[in-house]
Amino acid sequence: EKGGWDSFMNKEIHEQPQAVADTLLGRFNLDGDLNLDEVRIDEEVFRSIDKIIVIACGTAAYAGMVAKYAIEHWVRIPVEVELAHEFRYRDPILNSRTLVIAISQSGETMDTLMALRHAREQGSRVLAICNTQGSTIPRESDAVLYTHAGPEIAVASTKAFVAQIIAAYLIGLYLAQVKGAMYRDEIRDIVDDLRAMPAKIQRVLDTQAEAVESAAQAMVDAQSFLFLGRHVGYPVAMEGALKLKEIAYTFTEGFAAGELKHGPIALVDSGEPVVVIVPPARGRNVLHSKVLSAIEEVRARGAYTIAVAEEGDEDVREYADIVFWRPQCPTLMSPLVDVIPLQLLAMDMAKLKGLDIDKPRNLAKSVTVE
Ligand code: BG6
């Protein structure tokens, strides 16, 4: 069933263009507007929503964090992202105008299930984003938007992550549509951007594998890895760090690049690998130069710097020991491509260490205990 791949993870990483395309499929009506009738929440209810809380664990929570940047920007309502196991025990503020989005690949994560039950008891509507038809979380939610990533077997989540981002973006755009928060054309332009992503992911898969492999070879013996990013690059950094700890058992930390000077830079010593997600340089993006100076800072202290940067971003070359190139795309789309080399890096490192890629020690695909 691995279809010729050496691991399920490798297969699933390569299925990501399809996972994105399939999750977009069938969610529009003939004149191109978003149609989420399948969700079966009244448009009126969507219109009344004034706050979103995402509850999830692990990779699904990072997908939620990515979506927070997009949805707040598009819909102009606050989005909180809460680890499901922390949520219920802090007396969260919920009411009927709060939309709770529960994200779960398996649909069986007990922490997420308990959190959504709590939210419903408080009178909030819960919309699940889930990859598994008929699983518990969608059954216990008010509604569900399925990701169509196909079965994910490897414990480390890959294609579910990109599909979750797509599903959450569709919910955000739908809210913008029903609330009139954006012009129709603006929404369509973003949908076009989304539709362009499968080909861009494919391009990363086709062109970046060698660079990733050489970074893995250079750094396989490193005791620890740091990942940093800003804006949507921040959750991507944390997801990259999570992949590496899950399957290569490397001690990793992902953090916001702006936080570097407030502590983490003390960790940087000669030979320390630091992976930096560099935002697009176009559109006078102020964050671009700020992230570049973060690379400069760590490099000055002897770090081995790995950058994920946009094709054509020549400035990056002089700062980075190695660059994983991302095809040009809007900032909010960049997580869908930036995560790919980080997944490959974790896989290559695990392979070089001779570890079981699909079944890392101490982990289960879905954790059905609290
Ligand atoms: C963890 C898995 O236990 O659960 C992660 O190892 C996953 O890969 C997390 O991201 C959440 O799982 P789910 O099924 O709720 O998305």
Automatic annotation (TrEMBL):
Report the catalytic activity: D-fructose 6-phosphate + L-glutamine = D-glucosamine 6-phosphate + L-glutamate
The record's subcellular locations are: Cytoplasm
For molecular function, the Gene Ontology terms on record are:
carbohydrate derivative binding; glutamine-fructose-6-phosphate transaminase (isomerizing) activity
Coarse class of the primary localization is cytoplasm
Biological processes per GO annotation:
carbohydrate metabolic process; fructose 6-phosphate metabolic process; protein N-linked glycosylation; UDP-N-acetylglucosamine metabolic process
EC number(s) stated in the UniProt entry for this protein = 2.6.1.16
Q: Which GO terms describe its cellular component?
A: cytosol
Domain of life where this protein originates:
Bacteria
Where are the active-site residues found?
Answer: 365
Residue intervals of the SIS domain: 41-181, 215-360
- Any idea which UniProt keywords this protein has? Aminotransferase, Cytoplasm, Glutamine amidotransferase, Repeat, Transferase
Q: Can the keyword Translocase be found in this entry's annotation?
A: no
The function of this protein is: Catalyzes the first step in hexosamine metabolism, converting fructose-6P into glucosamine-6P using glutamine as a nitrogen source.
Quaternary form?
Homodimer.
Q: Give the protein's recorded name.
A: Glutamine--fructose-6-phosphate aminotransferase [isomerizing]
Please name the source species.
Alloscardovia theropitheci
The primary gene name is glmS
